Amino acid sequence: MSANSIVLIIDDEPAAREGLEALLAGENYQLELAVNGLDGLAKAAQVAPDVILLDVMMPGMDGYEVCRRLRADPQLGEVPILMITALDDREARLEGIRAGADDFIAKPYDSVELTARLQSLTRLNRFRRLLEERVRLAWVLDHAADGYLILDEKDHLLYANSRACLYLGLPLDGFTTAGKFVDVVRRQYRLEPETAWAAWPRLSRRCYLVRPETLNTRAFWLQVEIFHPVGAPASGGVVQLRDVTEQVAARRDMRKFHSAVSHKLLTPLNHIYSGLGLLVDELDTLPRSEVERLANTALEGARRLFAELQDIFDYVSAPSLATPGEGFALAQLQAQITAIASSLSLTQVTVSTPDDLQPARLTMSQRAMELILWELLENAKKFHPRQSPAVEVAVVRAEDRAIRLQVRDDGLTLSPDQLAHAWEPYVQGEKHFTGEIPGMGLGLAMVAALVWQAKGAVRLANRPDGPGVVVELTLQLAP
Q1: How far is 237 from 181, CA to CA, in rounded Å?
Q2: Residue 188 pLDDT more than 60?
Q3: Which is nearest to 24 in space by CA: 111, 150, 127?
Q4: Can you tell me the mean pLDDT for 311-336?
Q5: Residue 409: which of 387, 426, 427, 431 has the closest Cα?
Q6: Contact 31, 24 (CB under 8 A)
Q7: 3-state secondary structure of 73
Q8: 264 confidence band (pLDDT: 50, 70, 90)
Q9: CA distance 378 to 390
Q10: CA end-to-end span of the chain, whole Å?
């Protein structure tokens, strides 16, 4: 029996109503009373009962007609009806069945039998309603734009809607044999950031599944969130998969964008404007040395503005640069780094690549590797106390046809918060953002986007042997 189930009693005899009310008073039902057929129909529409106890022999509209009208009502047509009648002959029961009654009990009725039948009908109606709600929910989930999965306490799939099956490549009728959720997604996606996924299923921050870019398709991003109902086992939960590919491609996280623009673009623009303004207004009266100083100030502002804008353009175009093309030959690494170091005036840069890896090629494109190496070396200089770091670049073999490119410098030691957010756009290593450090804070975010979308991985850590950081990129080797 379900507590608070609504039972509607329709009977024209006051004594019969009072008897039923007294009998059921201790059964935790919500009892509603109606004195005739019309009153019963009105009450049923008002309270939506779980069960109706309906007397057959009533003046005016008898129980059969009430039953027929209830069955014709779209809102009440499924409510169980228990007919109470003094007639115990076969024809009376057939008439009740034709009218739509679910069960019968004859007067004088046995109180134990009546309560037992009522409990049975109540449970059946509750079950019917649960099934209806489940059908509605299944329809909503199957037409939802997001993927939804239900996991058991061992991380196995119990349910996946059609969108989740599409995202994970699962058959619509066979997902329960797919295995553990994390194992299923690893077959097709990169789990980023890896440090957050290590705590699965207790995610502390937003995580992503990334299907890297190929020659024929762009990168595909799914945002993953898991909900643990109160009291649920530690490894169960409901998982939401949301396609955020467009958002990732369009915005690249606009956090701190306004402050970056105001410091990074307006400052050099002001130098240009003020320098050229003074030159125009005072050109006839200024000595040549002052003219040269103002012109140099404006030129330096223009160069700085160009560099800041170039950072933005490189970041926006970064995803398309991961397309392999001919790839990048590791034999070129030494020459590429030497050229970049020369452009940045870095004099202490060493490169080591094992001889057996010299003939290998990376799946990363030539342009993408150039941008990555430039950003890493420029950062090493930018955040060194004297802008003269000693940088060590090393290539080591990794598993599964991959290499690790390690870049060590001897500059700053970063806080845990800086390490955690270093791969996010518009984040810089300054304790208090002043805008004086060159660059838009897009470098490492661009590096991460390029590497992730080329099936690689990124890691940043403080050096254990002194000041400075180690950036480690796992990059795939071409077949």
Answers
A1: 11
A2: yes
A3: 111
A4: 71
A5: 387
A6: yes
A7: coil
A8: low
A9: 12
A10: 67
Cβ neighbours around 79 below 10 Å, total:
21
Handedness of CA 332, 337, 340, 345 (dihedral sign): negative
Lowest-pLDDT range of 4-13, 235-244, 305-314 = 305-314
For 292, other C-beta atoms within 10 Å of its C-beta total 11
Q: Looking at the predicted structure, is the pLDDT value of residue 248 above 70?
A: yes
| Token digits of residue 270 | 């002001």
Q: For the full predicted model, state whether its pTM sits above 0.90.
A: no
Cα–Cα distance measured from residue 211 to residue 362, given in angstroms and rounded to the nearest whole number: 18
Rounded-to-integer distance, Cα 475 and Cα 456, Å: 5
Residues of the chain with CATH 3.30.565.10: 318-476
Q: Which is more confident, 430 or 394?
A: 394
The CATH number of 6-141, from 3.30.465.10, 1.10.287.3510, 3.40.50.2300, 3.30.559.70, is 3.40.50.2300
Question: Tell me, what DSSP letter sits at residue 229?
Answer: -
Strand partners, 6: 30
Going through 163-297 in order, the beta strands assigned E by DSSP cover 190-192, 207-211, 220-227, 237-243
Instruction: In the chain, list all ranges with CATH 3.30.450.
Output: 147-250
**Delimiting residues of CATH 3.40.50.2300 domain(s) in the chain:** 6-141
> Which H or E element spans position 134?
helix 111-142
Supply 110's token pair.
Answer: 């046995």
Residue with tokens 């309270």: 47
Q: Give the right CATH number for 318-476 from 3.90.420.10, 3.30.565.10, 3.40.50.720, 3.40.50.300.
A: 3.30.565.10
Residues 137, 130: Cα–Cα separation, whole Å: 10
Task: Compare 250 and 475 and report the one with higher pLDDT.
Answer: 475
Q: So what's the pLDDT on residue 314?
A: 59
- Mean pLDDT, the chain, rounded, equals 81
Tokens 């450090």, located at residue: 437
Residue 383: CB partners within 8 Å, gap ≥ 6? 411, 412, 429, 437
- 147-250 has CATH 3.30.1490 classification: no
